[in-house]
């Protein structure tokens, strides 16, 4: 639960007509119209993170009714009418046909999670290297090939970009062909962030900000560089493999040895936050994170949640805020317990959701709900779910 409502897949457009070139937006008066700037933004794809960011723009009419779009943005509306609607008229799902002027999957929950943020964390869903970047909220729209973490905190960014999380993701998520994937329910939701951080939070934030700034500065200075290219060379440096001339150029212009030193500094700060040695083998990292996950599951089954972004998550979970150290912890009180559903199907859904984070006893589950049965009845329901797999 500590990581719930924080990681999302980007928007599924459901029509190539939403994507436009800058010259068309300029002809519509983008530079002079405040409403256009709210509804025409840069689209970020997974390959824009790993390779070159392309200057494509995307029309995003989410939040406008069809009448509002037609009356307030007639040029944009006509373009979408001609290029998107004919395709959406042919799809099977009724909601896609009826709401043809907005994205097929506009991700409203992701948008709600952006409120109060100026930037968010993003990574390509599929990629050889697990690379996270900060992207500006107002200027960008992530598409479905991008996974989003709704935090502007360099501490969260730093832990995600550290060796500890990237090693975890290789074990937790699957692959597409030979490229690792990033899955929110497998890689992000169960990942246990360090909590006994003390002064280490500041060190992680400083290292993460410097790492992010270094990479962006090198990419902006040299158009032939890509994130994938930088990390290919970094991988060779760590392996002690000689570089060919093209890789030497990437090393020099991208200052990859500095990138390596910044990653080492970040990994050391994150290791210190966990209280672990910085030179653990990959298998030991995974084993320790799995054990820490089990500890958190037991805590949460007892009602103690170490929220990652408490000011956003806790109101949606219907719990009050209590502060303990750097990260906030919730002890779920009787007045804030979730109500136990009255009908049997919803009871099983609630029970399944309560078990989504891992094993828990019937007594622990009963403490999470107001009016939940205790003893034999709830144990039988748990046993039923177990029998169904």
Please explain how this structure is put together.
There is one protein chain. By secondary structure, the protein is an alpha+beta fold. Helix content is 50%, strand content 12%. The chain contains 20 helices and 14 strands. It has helices at residues 22-27, 34-39, 46-50, 66-72, 74-83, 85-88, 94-98, 108-114, 154-161, 163-172, 184-188, 200-221, 227-239, 245-254, 256-274, 282-301, 310-317, 344-354, 362-366, 376-387; strands spanning 7-9, 19-20, 40-44, 57-59, 119-124, 132-136, 140-142, 146-149, 175-176, 179-180, 304-307, 328-331, 338-339, 369-370. The strands form 5 sheets. A 4-stranded antiparallel beta sheet has the order 1-8-5-6, sandwiched between helices. Strands 2-4-3-7 form a 4-stranded mixed beta sheet. Helix 4 (66-72) crosses helix 5 (74-83), helix 9 (154-161) crosses helix 12 and helix 13 crosses helix 15. The longest helix is centred in the middle third of the chain and has 22 residues, at 200-221. The model is unreliable at 332-336 (pLDDT under 50).
- Helix segment count? 20
For the biggest β-sheet, the strand order reads 1-8-5-6
Q: Hey, roughly how much beta strand do the residues contain? A: 5-15%
Quaternary structure type: single chain
Radius of gyration, in angstroms, nearest whole number: 23 Å
Helix amount? 40-55%
What's the number of extended β-strand segments?
14
- Mean pLDDT, all residues: 90
Assign the structural class, choosing from mainly alpha, mainly beta, alpha/beta, alpha+beta, or little secondary structure.
alpha+beta
């Amino acid at each position: 639960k500590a990581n719930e409502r924080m990681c999302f897949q980007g928007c599924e457009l459901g029509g190539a007509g939403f994507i436009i070139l800058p010259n068309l937006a300029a002809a519509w008066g983008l530079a002079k119209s405040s409403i256009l700037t709210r509804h025409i933004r840069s689209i970020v794809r997974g390959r824009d993170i790993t390779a070159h960011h392309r200057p494509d723009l995307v029309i995003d009419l989410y939040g406008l009714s069809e009448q509002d779009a037609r009356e307030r943005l007639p040029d944009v509306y006509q373009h979408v009418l001609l290029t998107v609607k004919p395709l959406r008229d042919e799809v099977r799902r009724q909601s896609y046909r009826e709401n043809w002027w907005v994205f097929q999957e506009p991700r409203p929950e992701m948008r709600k999670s952006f409120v109060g943020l100026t930037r968010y964390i993003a990574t390509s869903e599929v990629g050889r290297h697990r690379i996270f970047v900060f992207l500006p909220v107002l200027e960008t729209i992530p598409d479905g090939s991008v996974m989003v973490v709704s935090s502007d905190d360099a501490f969260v960014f730093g832990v995600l970009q550290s060796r500890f999380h990237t090693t975890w993701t290789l074990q937790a998520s699957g692959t597409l062909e030979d490229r690792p994937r990033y899955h929110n329910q497998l890689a992000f939701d169960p990942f246990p962030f360090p909590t006994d951080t003390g002064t280490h939070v500041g060190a992680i934030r400083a290292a993460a900000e410097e790492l992010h700034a270094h990479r962006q500065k090198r990419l902006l200075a040299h158009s032939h560089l890509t994130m994938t290219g930088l990390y290919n060379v970094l991988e060779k440096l760590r392996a002690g493999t000689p570089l060919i001339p093209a890789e030497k150029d990437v090393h020099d212009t991208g200052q990859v040895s500095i990138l390596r030193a910044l990653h080492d500094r970040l990994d050391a700060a994150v290791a210190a936050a966990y209280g672990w040695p910085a030179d653990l083998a990959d298998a030991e990292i995974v084993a320790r994170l799995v054990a820490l996950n089990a500890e958190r599951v037991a805590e949460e089954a007892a009602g103690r949640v170490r929220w990652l972004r408490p000011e956003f998550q806790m109101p949606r979970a219907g719990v009050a805020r209590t502060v303990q150290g750097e990260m906030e912890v919730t002890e779920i009180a009787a007045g804030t317990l979730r109500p136990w559903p009255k009908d049997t199907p919803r009871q099983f859904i609630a029970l399944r959701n309560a078990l989504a984070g891992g094993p828990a006893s019937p007594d622990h589950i009963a403490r999470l709900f107001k009016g939940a049965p205790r003893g034999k009845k709830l144990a039988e329901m748990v046993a039923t779910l177990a029998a169904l797999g």
